[in-house]
Design a protein that fits this description.
- By secondary structure, this protein is of the alpha+beta class.
- The chain folds into three domains: 29-230, Lysozyme-like; 234-295, no CATH class; 299-409, no CATH class.
- It has helices at 4-24, 58-68, 124-141, 151-154, 180-185, 196-199, 208-215, 219-230, 243-247, 309-313, 339-343, 367-371; strands at 29-31, 48-53, 73-75, 81-83, 98-99, 102-103, 109-114, 148-150, 156-157, 167-168, 204-205, 257-259, 265-267, 282-284, 299-301, 322-325, 331-333, 350-353, 355-360, 381-383, 389-391, 405-409.
- It has a six-stranded mixed β-sheet with strand order 1-4-3-7-2-8. Strands 15-18-16-17 form a four-stranded antiparallel β-sheet. The chain has a four-stranded antiparallel β-sheet with strand order 19-22-20-21.
- Helix 7 packs across helix 8 (219-230).
- The chain is globular.
Length: 410
């Protein structure tokens, strides 16, 4: 018979062994804290872990991620893990995003950036480090394997000239972490079997090859789709390959340069009529721009970005979350307007897709009162009484005038 003293000794010894094992496997971090930590709120809930690829070398990626607070962790090619944002706080790593109808995934997730490219495998040291990091984060936040997602799974794009509805395929970021082979190396047994927002009709598929990488019914189907992406070295516009196919939401960025067949060069921000960009044009993506960056300007203007409101927002012209700002300052939701009224909107009308009206600033109601810390996010807009639209991260709350209107991305 085992005495009570012996049982206590055995329990104590077991606890000591477990503690030593936990210590032996404790993760080692290199601190690279963002100055944005103190200003970001603590998340109410954490449902997901989102895996990204930097699409840029370590140093340039780390500098940008730190300065803007765009991820919680970064894993370099040697397997070293950098802590950038407090894992409990909001980091701006997903941009325009949705999963199971829940928008703005930044508010519900931990972001892990991995130095590498979306169409190239990572190092064995990175696999080992990410596996340990995922174990720790999953235990901390009680996240099952099927809620460890890639940025390419949750990112979505607003309508444009190539896709008339909000669509999946805006980012290929981190796509290899959805494959059976990669998830096995990361110790992940489960994964989403399909895209819940496409299945529910909230979004459409804009990139069928990417969808096969993310949700291929077999490892072979995934590998075949990955092979297609691995061969994408020639960024030339053709009959079957548009500027959007090459640059995604960077197609209109000033950092994206189009070299026309006659040698002329134009920046994406200078092009107005995309239908006249000739076949044979080569697309040079800015080296300093990460593929997972949310780089498409959400504000579209009639006359500058399209001939009509329909050109700007496609099939979502009459949606509740399509907001129009008319030249006279009036604000209208798409659901309030008839097709004829939308078609007749004058030049200078601005449109925001996937936004809601937060409210108006008054003497007793500040921007913080309207939407909390979200007032200063770069995705938030403030319409000043003078008609100017200003991004949240460019505003001083104390200087926001009365009657200014806050718009929040859904």
């Amino acid at each position: 018979m085992v005495s009570p003293a012996h049982r206590r000794f055995r329990r104590g010894w077991t606890a000591l062994i477990l503690a030593l094992c936990a210590s032996a496997h404790a993760l080692e971090y290199k601190d690279a804290w963002s100055p944005r930590n103190a200003e970001r709120p603590i998340r109410d809930r954490t449902y997901y872990i989102i895996l990204h690829t930097t699409e840029a070398p370590k140093e340039s990626a780390l500098n940008k991620l730190r300065s803007a607070g765009e991820t919680h962790f970064l894993v370099d090619t040697a397997g070293k893990i950098y802590r950038i944002m407090d894992q409990r706080r909001v980091a701006l790593h997903c941009g325009r995003s949705m999963w199971k109808g829940l928008a703005d995934i930044d508010q519900y997730s931990v972001g892990v950036e991995v130095v590498g490219r979306y169409n190239s495998d990572i190092t064995s040291a990175q696999y080992a480090a990410i596996k340990e990091l995922l174990l720790e984060l999953q235990r901390t936040f009680h996240i099952p394997d099927n809620r460890v997602l890639t940025h390419s799974m949750v990112a979505y794009g607003a309508p444009n000239r190539w896709h008339l509805r909000s669509h999946r395929g805006r980012k290929r970021c981190g796509m290899l972490f959805a494959t059976t082979a990669a998830r096995r190396k990361l110790g992940l047994a489960g994964k989403p079997a399909c895209d819940p927002d496409v299945d529910a009709g909230r979004l459409v598929v804009a990139d069928p090859y990417l969808a096969r990488v993310l949700y291929g019914v077999s490892a072979k189907q995934q590998e075949d789709a990955v092979t297609r992406f691995a061969g994408e070295a020639n960024n030339v516009i053709s009959r079957n390959r548009s500027a959007w196919d090459i640059a995604r939401d960077r197609y209109a960025s000033a950092e994206t340069v189009y070299i026309l067949p006659d040698g002329a060069r134009k920046r994406g921000s200078e092009i107005r009529d995309w239908g006249r960009v000739p076949i044979g044009t080569r697309v040079a993506l800015g080296k300093g721009t990460r593929e997972d960056e949310d780089s498409e300007e959400p504000v579209k203007e009639v006359g500058a970005d399209g001939k009509s409101a329909g050109d700007l927002v496609g099939d979502e012209a009459r949606n509740e979350n399509t907001i129009y700002i008319l030249p006279d300052g009036k604000i209208k939701r798409g659901s309030e307007l008839t097709p004829g009224r939308i078609a007749a909107m004058p030049a200078g009308t601005r449109a925001l897709v996937g936004y809601t009206i937060g409210g108006q600033v008054t003497a007793r109601r500040s921007a913080f009162d309207i939407c909390g810390i979200r007032w200063k996010l770069p995705s938030t807009y403030c319409l000043m009484p003078c008609g100017k639209l200003v991004k949240g991260d460019k505003m001083d709350e104390s200087a926001i005038p009365k009657n200014a209107v806050i718009f929040l991305r859904e």
